[in-house]
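ARCHIVE CARD
CATEGORY: sequence design from structure
SOURCE FIELD: tokenized fold
FIELD CONTENT:
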């Protein structure tokens, strides 16, 4: 069984690497003997087609896990095809010194959890084969702290794969100020972790602009869609700046708030100035950027926004939405 699967994967990889145009599933099915066997009569036309589809999707995912970059291309008539360009699957020789190997090992330890543990371990095995120094243990302790990035949202894995494969997605999203979720059609760019929460940066097709979505507000299942992206994907630095800006990391103004004494220490740490008002309240001047309203709501009755008026209105709207459930 293992030999048969390995041969099938090899044949599929050769077909995808050897073509200059995208091949449809039908063409791949007719070109690989194992797929021809899967659709032979005996289990009914529908059953044999379903068997092939499941086998093909598993094989495609396995090749991607092994590092093969497979592109999904939709033709003008709507037919989906696949190919693996040689220039996208050719890497220069990899040489790592001890410090670089240790850094990669530390990064892999971050993902030693849940569904990503296997991928992290597999990546290190590939690096071993590519020249990772034998005297370096990438899993050895690097200090008293164990690096971990928590991933609790069910949307994380399908969005991570969609970012990798450049596949548009559809999901239901509930804004903090909305009583119910609404569908979003997004071209995903990258996932970022900020303040313990995961965010997706991408192009919102319905609004025709870049947007950032907090994964914990995605409800239901993430569905992928075929077709190419309609907007260019920015480089990594730009995406990270976008995530930071929309999550409130970048501030271009200041706001004045009243804060109850002995509370809101994260706000106090960012304050430009703090003045005691008496009666158990302080006045703070804090940096004001996109997302500050959502952060202030988390402190509930301990915070009162003084100015600007637009920030006060946004906080009030969010509190009303929470009160409505």
């Amino acid at each position: 069984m293992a030999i048969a699967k390995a041969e099938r994967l090899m044949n599929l990889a050769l077909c995808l690497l050897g073509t200059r145009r995208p091949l449809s599933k039908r063409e791949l099915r007719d070109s690989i003997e194992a797929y021809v066997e899967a659709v032979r009569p005996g289990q009914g036309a529908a059953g044999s087609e379903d068997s092939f589809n499941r086998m093909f999707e598993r094989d495609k995912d396995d090749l991607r896990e092994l590092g093969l970059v497979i592109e999904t291309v939709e033709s003008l008539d709507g037919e989906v095809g696949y190919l693996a360009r040689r220039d996208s699957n050719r890497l220069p020789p990899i040489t790592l010194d001890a410090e670089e190997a240790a850094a990669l090992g530390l990064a892999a330890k971050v993902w030693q959890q849940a569904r990503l543990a296997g991928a992290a371990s597999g990546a290190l095995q590939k690096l071993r084969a590519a020249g990772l120094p034998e005297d370096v243990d990438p899993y050895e302790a690097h200090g008293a702290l164990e690096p971990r990035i928590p991933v609790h949202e069910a949307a994380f894995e399908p969005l991570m794969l969609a970012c990798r494969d450049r596949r548009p997605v559809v999901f239901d999203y509930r804004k903090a100020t909305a009583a119910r979720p609404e569908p979003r059609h997004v071209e995903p760019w990258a996932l970022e972790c900020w303040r313990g929460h995961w965010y997706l940066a991408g192009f919102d097709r319905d609004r025709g602009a870049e947007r950032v979505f907090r994964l914990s507000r995605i409800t239901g299942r993430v569905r992928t869609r075929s077709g190419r992206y309609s907007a260019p994907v920015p480089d990594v630095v730009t995406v990270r700046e976008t995530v930071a800006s929309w999550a409130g990391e970048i501030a271009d103004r200041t706001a004045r708030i009243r804060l109850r004494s002995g509370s809101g220490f994260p706000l106090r740490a960012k304050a430009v100035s703090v003045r005691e008002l008496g009666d158990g309240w302080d006045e703070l001047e804090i940096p004001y950027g996109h997302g500050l309203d959502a952060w202030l709501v988390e402190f509930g009755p301990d915070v009162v926004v003084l100015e600007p008026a637009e920030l006060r209105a946004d906080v009030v709207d969010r509190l009303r939405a929470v009160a409505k459930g």
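CARD ANNOTATION: The longest strand covers residues 182-194. The chain has a mean pLDDT of 80.
SHELF: design records, drawer C
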